């Protein structure tokens, strides 16, 4: 990692150092990158690591300025991203963008077969009007609204999971194989309706598209359940997928974090109260000094 460069004060006037808001280091201007849309500036290494992390995790397709207090809420343009990441990471970014475009396009949809995932065209009949869609890649026929097998004359079941497995067709699925709804390998996010596949692991899921946390089995929201109390009772009891000791350790960490912040705030409060008059006094003096006329 590039280290911040420190020089004597008499040399700073010739080539001043710029502070990075991410790592708080100071670097010469040639080691900094300015975001064109908002003009926020960061060291190139920090900005590169920030962009790569978001793309690898698939968290965002529109990469925002890393400064949470950015006044213009700027975003990095595609050419800016391409200049700082490797080609394979850039390809993943473009793939995520394409998937997002298809998701928001009322005239396109994904084939729900987990072995196909081709893009299918829809007729312009409105997003709420179910229509028969036939995938040109695998010839599967499905409903445009609920993505289940085409069901003429029947209403869509919004909670119906996708239960066909790799290698199955819609015919074999409907006639000879059926999976319990709770054990379906692919389900839809209860908030944004994007398809999510679960191979194994924890039952606490987070949708990469809308960041909604929910239980895989009953689809109940876990956004506010930091301690995972949901798995202590009811039909999902002890179905989290972790040992009891692991759950207790998780809760201890969460409680410790909140307790630590509370203790820090409690300890710092008297010092903040004592420092407030001095800060206000300094500000008043500064404003008064600015209003003083220049000496003649």
UniProtKB/TrEMBL annotation:
Name of the featured protein: E3 ubiquitin-protein ligase RNF144A
Source organism of the structure: Sarcophilus harrisii
Pathway listed: Protein modification; protein ubiquitination
Biological role: E3 ubiquitin-protein ligase which accepts ubiquitin from E2 ubiquitin-conjugating enzymes UBE2L3 and UBE2L6 in the form of a thioester and then directly transfers the ubiquitin to targeted substrates. Mediates the ubiquitination and degradation of the DNA damage kinase PRKDC during DNA damage. Positively regulates DNA virus or exogenous cytosolic DNA-triggered innate immune response by mediating STING1 ubiquitination and increasing its 'Lys-6'-linked ubiquitination and translocation from the endoplasmic reticulum to the Golgi leading to downstream signaling pathways.
GO terms (BP aspect): protein ubiquitination
Pfam families: IBR, IBR_1
Family: Belongs to the RBR family. RNF144 subfamily.
Gene that this polypeptide is encoded by: RNF144A
Domain annotation RING-type: ranges: 16-240, 20-66
């Amino acid at each position: 990692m590039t280290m911040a460069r420190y020089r004597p004060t008499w040399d700073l006037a010739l080539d001043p150092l710029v502070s990075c808001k991410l790592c708080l280091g100071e670097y010469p201007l040639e080691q900094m990158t300015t975001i064109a849309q908002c003009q926020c500036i960061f060291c190139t290494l920090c900005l590169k690591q920030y962009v790569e992390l978001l793309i690898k995790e698939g968290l965002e397709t529109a990469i925002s300025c890393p400064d949470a207090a950015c006044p213009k809420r700027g975003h990095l343009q595609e050419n800016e991203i391409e200049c700082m990441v490797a080609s394979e990471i850039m390809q993943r970014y473009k793939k995520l963008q394409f998937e997002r475009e298809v998701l928001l396009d009322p005239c396109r949809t994904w084939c729900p077969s987990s072995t196909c995932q081709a893009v299918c065209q829809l007729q312009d009949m409105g997003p709420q009007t179910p229509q028969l869609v036939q995938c040109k890649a695998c010839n599967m026929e499905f409903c445009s609204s609920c993505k289940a097998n085409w069901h003429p004359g029947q209403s869509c079941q919004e909670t119906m999971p996708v239960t066909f497995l790799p290698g199955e067709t819609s015919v074999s699925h409907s006639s000879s194989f059926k999976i319990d709804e709770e054990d379906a390998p692919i389900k839809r996010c209860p908030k944004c309706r994007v398809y999510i596949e679960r191979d194994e692991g924890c039952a606490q899921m987070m949708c990469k598209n809308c960041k909604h946390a929910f239980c895989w089995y009953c689809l109940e929201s876990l956004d506010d359940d930091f301690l995972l109390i949901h798995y202590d009772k009811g039909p999902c009891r002890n179905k989290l997928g972790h040992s009891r000791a692991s759950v207790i350790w998780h809760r201890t960490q969460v409680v410790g974090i909140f307790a630590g912040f509370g203790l820090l705030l409690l300890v710092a409060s008297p010092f903040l109260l004592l420092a407030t008059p001095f800060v206000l006094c300094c500000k008043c003096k500064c404003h008064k000094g600015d209003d003083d006329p220049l000496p003649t």
